[in-house]
Amino acid sequence: LTSTYTVCTVIAALETAAALADTLERSQADAVHWRHAATKMRTNLDKLYHPDGYFRKGFLLQPDGSLIYDDVLDISSLYGPYMFAKLPLDDPHMTSTLKAVEDHLLNTSPIGGVIRYVHDGYFLSKQQYPGNPWIVCSLWLAQIYYSMQQVEKARALADWSLARASRSGALSEQFDPETGAAQGVTPLVWSHAEMINTLLDFAHVA
Q: How is 105-150 classified by DSSP, letter by letter?
């Protein structure tokens, strides 16, 4: 599967490698090749955009050259273009994807938070809900709100995440949508890393 998130991380990696080659004055031919590949991928990002108005999860290339699309709305398909491909948040593709995330992934359970995607069954014990809320997903959306200067929305998601910490301060991967009990790995380094990233955003805004 070629996912929107992965494509965006590869674009960032190629552009960074090209910039490093320029700075070090080495591998100039490679730098040109990497930058060209990144530009081509960036130009074709719209192939991952669903006609209903959001970046789809991805697609699978078939032997005959056709594509089978994974049309799931996934929070990573908003965060990847924002963080790695650096698409401006006022880009119509981004505003519509954000709207879809707010409509379908934000506050889908009594305890709030953001789920990865609808019908995410990973550690989900209560099938009446579309998924468990995650720390990482909630903080990704918080970071996007910061960039949009919607500080109160960002702070609400950061506070939600901090409130999920255990007595030791450990942050879990995800939580039961009703009881708030920790699910998955605890502590999850990724959850802590995104908390640090988000709090650094706060410091930048301040």
A: TBS-STT--EESBTT--TT---TTSS--EEHHHHHHHHHHHHHTT-
